[in-house]
């Protein structure tokens, strides 16, 4: 007769199948080539230098006003269309929206003089014009994610194009609050740290340095993603998701030198956007000029952009219709969970002229 | 049935690694969050940039002697391509404007034709009525 030992429940039961799956998946993940990114069906509308404007047609178009996505300059935008079923773009096209995405591309050394003003005046503005023309719509909804939200907001403040709605997600507007060590921020602001010469020499900031910068601000030592993978490697779906996320995280893009200098000096050091002193082209980018309907989303678990960095936009714009929402998620969690598409739809559907 | 959760060594390893990671990162934060570290980093960056500058100058000089293209030449060529792209864009926009004005003109012409037709119809009507009244 078997007797129960006090260790029963403490010593894990050996599940042969689960362990085989776990180690097989782990071995595959570490040895197989990176997963391929499969995009939702899309067409190229316009191309300039390395930037491409993509159009994701809706299966059953329900709304007249299209959505125009502006992603950050730091990462590749395929996070918005990372996998079927969780893809933000796929979700929105299924809901009846025509979606446009401006992929900034990877700048090379020859793009060292591209600054924020060039990106906004010569790339974003032209892309928006093209999207409006291509869609045949009279107005457009801008959706900016992370730094893309900052760029979209700056553009909206000087735009002559008809922007009906502006949606910004985990957006840095006020650059005074800083997630990283406060002495670093102080050093940059006081001039103890000057990166101008460094940028001049590099031309474009290499992706390894961009990655290193984010690591240094958030978590210089980061290995728990691997232990998390080990603990859940028996689950095929989780492993697939992890692989895609890992690929995207390591897939950084170089940053054009002039744009990086403006970001560091004009936005971070002098906080010109919030003061209404930022000049783009020959226009003052004053957020007070924004009259479009505004929807701002922040993540309460965001370890990169604090809520205090996004919230000030609410008081700076002239929009009458404005909504601010805090979601319990991290910086990219919103794009990965599939929740983002639903949130956008909920807010924008009544503001997009139903057909 | 027991509601005890069985011990999962992988989960425990993950929990411990989270703790270790946080402790190491907190230590690095404390270690680097000071003015001296910022100044040292600035010095390191400046030395690195100067070293790169010297290296680049020598490289450009050597490439000039050997008649080899450098990245600066690539920049010039790339700028020409972008200029050409921008010119095509501007032309395309002009064409859009022309297309739009042609469309609006043809619409105007259509409406003028419609009005003219109406006027002709009315004139004919008036003429026939005038003939009737004359009789």
Descriptive account of the structure:
The complex is a heterodimer of chains A (355) and B (135). Chain A is 41% helix and 15% strand. Chain A is α/β, with parallel strands linked by helices. Chain A has a single domain (43-351), classed as Rossmann fold (3-Layer(aba) Sandwich). The mean pLDDT of chain A is 92. Chain B is mostly helical and 135 residues long. Chain B is 89% helix and 0% strand. Chains A and B meet through α3, α5, α6 and α8 of A and α1, α2 and α3 of B.
Secondary structure: elements and pairs:
The complex is a heterodimer of chains A (355) and B (135).
Chain A: H1 16-31, E1 43-48, E2 51-56, E3 67-70, H2 88-94, E4 99-103, H3 116-135, E5 140-145, H4 147-158, E6 163-169, H5 182-190, H6 196-202, E7 204-205, H7 207-217, H8 224-232, H9 236-250, E8 255-256, H10 257-269, H11 272-275, E9 279-280, E10 283-284, E11 293-299, H12 307-310, H13 313-316, E12 322-327, H14 333-337, H15 339-348
Chain B: H1 9-32, H2 35-66, H3 71-134
Largest interface: A-B, 43 and 47 residues
Radius of gyration of chain A: 22 Å
Mean pLDDT of chain B: 91
Strand order of the largest sheet of chain A: 1-2-4-3-5-6-11-12
Q: Helix/strand/pairing class of chain A, anyone?
A: alpha/beta
Q: In which range does the helix fraction of chain A lie?
A: 40-55%
Rg of chain B: 40 Å
Number of discrete helical segments of chain B: 3
Shape of chain A: globular
Poorly predicted regions of chain B: none
Amino-to-carboxy terminus distance of chain A = 74 Å
Order of helices and strands of chain A: HEEEHEHEHEHHEHHHEHHEEEHHEHH
Percent strand of chain A: 15-25%
- What's the CATH first level of chain A? Alpha Beta
For the residues shown, what is the average pLDDT of chain A?
Answer: 92
Percent helix range of chain B: over 70%
| Main beta sheet strand tally, sense and closure of chain A | 8 strands, mixed
The total tally of domains of chain A equals 1
**Shape-level CATH architecture of chain A:** 3-Layer(aba) Sandwich
InterPro entries (chain A): AB_hydrolase_1 (IPR000073), AB_hydrolase_fold (IPR029058), PHA/PHB_synthase (IPR051321)
Organism (chain A): Neobacillus vireti LMG 21834
Pfam family, one (chain A): Abhydrolase_1
Domain AB hydrolase-1 (chain A): 88-333
């Amino acid at each position: 007769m078997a007797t129960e030992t006090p260790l029963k429940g403490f010593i894990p039961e050996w599940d042969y199948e689960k362990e085989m799956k776990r180690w097989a998946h782990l071995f595959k993940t570490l040895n197989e080539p990176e997963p391929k990114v499969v995009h939702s069906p899309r067409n190229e509308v316009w191309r300039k230098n390395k930037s491409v404007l993509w159009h994701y047609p809706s299966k059953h178009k329900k709304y007249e006003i299209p959505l125009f996505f502006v992603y950050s300059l730091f990462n590749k935008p395929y996070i918005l269309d990372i996998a079927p079923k969780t893809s933000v773009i796929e979700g929105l096209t299924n809901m009846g929206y025509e979606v446009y995405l401006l992929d900034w591309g990877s700048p090379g050394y020859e793009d060292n003089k591209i600054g924020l003003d060039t990106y906004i005046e010569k790339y974003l503005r032209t892309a928006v014009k093209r999207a409006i023309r291509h869609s045949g719509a009279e107005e457009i909804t801008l959706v900016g994610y992370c730094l893309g939200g900052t760029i979209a907001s700056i553009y909206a403040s000087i735009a002559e194009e008809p922007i009906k709605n502006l949606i910004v997600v985990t957006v840095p507007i006020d650059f005074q609050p800083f997630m990283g060590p406060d002495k670093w921020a102080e050093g940059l602001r006081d001039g103890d740290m000057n990166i101008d010469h460094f940028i001049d020499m590099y031309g474009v900031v290499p992706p390894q340095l961009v990655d290193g910068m984010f690591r240094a601000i958030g978590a210089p030592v980061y290995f728990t993603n691997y232990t998390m993978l080990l603990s859940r490697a028996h689950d095929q779906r989780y492993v697939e998701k992890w692989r895609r996320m890992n690929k995207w995280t390591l897939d950084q893009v170089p940053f054009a030198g002039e744009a990086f200098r403006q970001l560091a000096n004009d936005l971070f050091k002098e906080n010109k956007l919030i003061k209404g002193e930022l000049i783009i082209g020959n226009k003052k980018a004053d957020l007070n000029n924004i009259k479009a309907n505004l929807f701002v989303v922040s993540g309460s678990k965001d370890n990169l952009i604090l809520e205090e960095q996004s919230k000030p936009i609410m008081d700076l714009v002239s929009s009458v219709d404005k909504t601010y929402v805090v979601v319990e998620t991290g910086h990219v969690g919103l794009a990965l969970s599939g929740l983002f598409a639903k949130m956008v739809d909920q807010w924008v559907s009544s503001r997009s002229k139903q057909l | 049935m027991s509601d005890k959760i069985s011990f999962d060594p992988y989960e425990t390893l993950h929990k411990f690694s989270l703790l270790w990671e946080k402790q190491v990162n907190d230590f690095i934060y404390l270690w680097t969050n000071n003015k001296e570290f910022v100044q040292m980093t600035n010095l390191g960056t400046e030395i690195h940039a100067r070293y790169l500058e010297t290296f680049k100058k020598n490289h450009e000089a050597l490439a000039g002697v050997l008649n080899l293209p450098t990245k600066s030449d690539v920049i010039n060529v790339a700028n020409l391509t972008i200029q050409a792209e921008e010119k095509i864009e501007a032309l395309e926009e002009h064409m859009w404007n022309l297309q739009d004005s042609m469309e609006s003109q043809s619409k105007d012409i259509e409406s003028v034709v419609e009005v003219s037709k109406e006027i002709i119809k009315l004139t004919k009507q008036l003429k026939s009525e005038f003939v009737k009244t004359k009789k």
